[in-house]
Structures are given as structure tokens and as C-alpha cells.
Specification:
Largest sheet: none
Number of helices: 1
Shape: rod-shaped
Order of helices and strands: H
Strand content: under 5%
Distance between the termini: 122 Å
Number of strands: 0
Length: about 80
């Protein structure tokens, strides 16, 4: 049978071991949550940027069409003025 001192020391080491395991698991869970959170934030930011770029391209396309219409109208008016 182990001596009372060695039994107490073994028990103390087991408690310390459990404590460190608990700390390690808690830290691993926190780090995992932070990584997942940052991943989703980055993904959402990329989606927002992509949507904004799409809207910008659509607005540019619309502006170019409008400018083309205005240019065509100006050409027609100029041509009409020359004929008169």
C-alpha cells in the first residue's frame, strides 16, 4: 500500500492534471470559436464587396448606355442643324 504522503501527492498531481486539461480544452474551444467567427466575418465581407462591385458595374453600364443615348441624340440634332 502506498504511503499517505505519496497518495496525497498522487491525488494532488491528478487534480493539477485535470485542471490543466480543463484549461487546455477551454482555450482550444475559445480559439476554435475565434477562428470560425473570423472566417464567417471574412466571408461576409467578401460577399458584401462582391455585391458592391456588381452594383458598381451595373451602375457604370447604365451610365454608359445613358451617355450613348445622349451622344446619339446630340449627333442627330447636329445633323439636323446642318441640313437646315
Amino acid at each position: 500500500m502506498p504511503e499517505p504522503e505519496s497518495s496525497a501527492l498522487i491525488e494532488k498531481l491528478r487534480r493539477a492534471n485535470r485542471r490543466w486539461k480543463t484549461i487546455a480544452i477551454s482555450l482550444a474551444m475559445i480559439l476554435t470559436m475565434l477562428v470560425v467567427n473570423n472566417f464567417w466575418r471574412a466571408k461576409l465581407a467578401a460577399q458584401r464587396a462582391e455585391a458592391e462591385a456588381y452594383r458598381a458595374v451595373a451602375a457604370e453600364h447604365k451610365a454608359r448606355q445613358e451617355l450613348g443615348k445622349q451622344l446619339e441624340k446630340a449627333k442627330q440634332e447636329t445633323e439636323k442643324a446642318r441640313r437646315q
